[in-house]
Amino acid sequence: MTIGERLLRLRKERNLSQEELANALDVSRQTISKWETDQSTPDFDKIIPLCEYFGITSDELLTGNYNIKEAKQANVKSNFARNIAVAVMLYIFAIIAVVLCSAQFGQPIIGVSIFFALIAAGTGLLIYNGIYYSKEKNQQKEEYNEKDNTVLKQITSIIGTIGLIVYLLVSFLTMAWHLTWIIFIIVGLVNEIVKLIYSINASKGSVDNE
């Protein structure tokens, strides 16, 4: 296998476009295309950035002595952790928005609006994360089934905890106790949607494996 073929395989394993890889390495898309078709080889000053980007050594890039499966698993775990961190930050910012708008600016309605927008974004990211992670795990269902269930429990637990905190904050700040109970319904629906998505993907995985 040539260097170009290895680069193409690495890129495909990570579901990257030539443009995305080119932007990460500060080169043109045409340069990536030439590398992958062996019309040219990466310059010396691009070997290290390439290896760092794909998480491999220069020897692995040049000789092909690396494990694609392990590299892919490491990349999936890294993306999963990053997306979880971003979602949690969005939840935190949502709470901060409610507190600031209510306590500092006297605009609880605006705060609640921002809160729901950020919660929606964070939840969407968690759902996407769950779909993608579930899809990857279904390829190795027997090996990772227990871990997959653990991830689902962690996500629903995080959503439930955040929902409780938000309910208390919004209720005390707005004193709209007769309305804020709706937050629990929303949290319950979000958790059920997440579980449904996991269940659907697990069923698809089972059918595909058969």
Descriptive tags:
mainly alpha; 2 domains; disordered C terminus; 434 Repressor (Amino-terminal Domain); 0% strand; 210 residues
Notes on the protein architecture:
With 210 residues, the chain is mostly helical. It has 2 domains: 3-63, 434 Repressor (Amino-terminal Domain); 73-209. Helices cover 85% and strands 0% of the residues. It contains 10 helices and no strands. It has helices at 3-13, 18-25, 29-36, 44-54, 58-63, 68-104, 108-138, 141-174, 177-180, 182-209. It is elongated. It starts with a helix and ends with a helix.
Question: Could you give a quick summary of the protein structure above?
Answer:
The chain has helices spanning 3-13, 18-25, 29-36, 44-54, 58-63, 68-104, 108-138, 141-174, 177-180, 182-209. It is mostly helical and 210 residues long.
**What share of the residues lie within helices?**
over 70%
What is the β-strand count?
0
The major β-sheet equals: none
Please report the distance between the alpha carbons of the first and last residues. 32 Å
Number of helical elements: 10
How much strand content do the residues show? under 5%
- Which structural class fits the helix and strand makeup? mainly alpha
